[in-house]
Prior knowledge:
The protein is α/β, with parallel strands linked by helices. The chain is 33% helix and 20% strand.
Amino acid sequence: MDLIERLLGIDVSALSDADKTLPVVDHTVRAMIPEVRMAGPAFTVVAEDDHLPVMSALAEAAPGDVLVIASNGGPRALFGELFATEARRRGLAGIVADGFCRDLRGLRRIRLPVFARGTTPRSGTTVSRAALGATIACGGVEVSAGDIVFGDDDGLLIATTERIAAALETAELIGHAERAILAAQARGEALHGLTNHDEHVAALDRGEASVLAFRVDG
Length: 218
């Protein structure tokens, strides 16, 4: 099972818990379509109130890529239903814009994972010839072409393949443990009894180092 497939089997929060130093994109760049998950290598582009670079990037990106767009603060929409439809047709994993999108009703129908700061009906120009594949800033995170973009309803995490891979096994164990706790809670068991809560609190009150931990397999 490859890294992308394994990522799609866990939540972004589990990976973030596994390595709390992994870069998380600003929370204002959020999922426009609910209940989606995406993971793939970044294909970067700068589009400052001009969506021609986004159209050019769609022609160059490979299946499985996530298009990551830096707007540098521009207030206009950088893509909408037409571009998302083309991204879906070309097999892209999703689109992330540190900026705005539009055609939200159409985006909901397409169901391509889309992340943006919000929506606006105003589009920009179509004259920019900005280079593709440059290192950009997206929601406060530096993104280079090929970095792994991992997103779900909780937000976005972007890091190198090496950093993601190093945290992945621990994240999978966290996910397994959380599912086991949820199953136990469904059987009527209390959350506190499924962790070391009491011992952890007592140790902290004694001034001792302690870590809150699960008491389930995984």
